[in-house]
Design brief:
Layout (H helix, E strand, L loop, with lengths): L3 H26 L4 H6 L7 E3 L16 E9 L5 E6 L6 E6 L4 E6 H4 L3 E8 L19 E5 L3 E9 L6 H9 L2 E4 L5 H9 L25
Length: 218
């Protein structure tokens, strides 16, 4: 009996390790994960609106009283901007990695404003990133650092009743998910260095040029 007990503990420990590895490895080995299912509906860096209370949903456990819009983003070439209007404080945006690990979430109550703009920036490109909390157009934006180049952003919009479904869909249809086209810093510096048109000439040396003498009319 004494010789059996150490083997029992070793077997129990190995079973626990295998269980943990299985749980964490399934998202990376599954062939029908969220990324593959949603890729059949839309392309990358595009916002797609799912039908409300559809009989055949692409993902399990989707609530019938919530409207969903998702964007499969790819930051390999450029950053991606996600812009939307919140209908009320119950709306939310969740950003996850390709394998489902959620790393950012914000609700309408936390945002405290109706219009929201998220700028998705990969961590690998963060050292050379020049984006700020305001876009080139002067709009406020929230910079979200993503651990990987690809992921999924989901907008959840609860539908308060059948009479509000049309307004909810209209707001979601106005949302955008697209790559950000940033100006070249060299071009911006060259534009700023150009002299303004119709600007007065600058007289160097602090002295004005001498005027020609006036001729008196006899």
């Amino acid at each position: 009996m004494r010789g059996f007990f150490p083997w029992f503990l070793a077997a129990l420990f190995c079973a626990g390790v295998i269980h943990v590895l299985t749980v964490f490895g399934v998202p990376y080995l599954a062939t029908r994960d969220a990324w593959s299912r949603l890729s059949a509906l839309s392309g990358q860096n595009q916002l797609y609106l799912l039908p409300i209370a559809a009989a055949d949903t692409p993902l399990p456990f989707m609530a019938p009283d919530i409207a969903y819009a998702f964007c499969r983003f790819d930051l390999t070439a450029k950053n991606v901007s996600l812009q939307t209007q919140f209908g009320d404080a119950s709306w939310s945006i969740a950003v996850s990695g390709r394998h489902g690990e959620n790393f950012y979430f914000i609700s309408g109550a936390e945002a405290k404003r109706r219009e929201l703009r998220l700028l998705l920036v990969p961590r690998a490109r963060l050292s050379e990133e020049a984006s700020t909390e305001r876009s080139e157009e002067g709009d406020e934006q929230i910079i979200v650092i993503t651990p990987d180049m690809t992921g999924i952003a989901v907008i959840r919009a609860p539908v308060r009743g059948p009479s509000f479904a049309e307004d909810t869909i209209r707001l979601l249809q106005s949302a955008q998910c697209q790559p950000v086209i940033e100006q070249d810093p060299n071009v911006i510096a060259a534009e700023e260095a150009k002299p303004e048109q119709n600007a007065p000439a600058v007289v160097r040396g602090g002295r004005r040029p001498a005027r020609p003498p006036r001729t008196q009319v006899q």
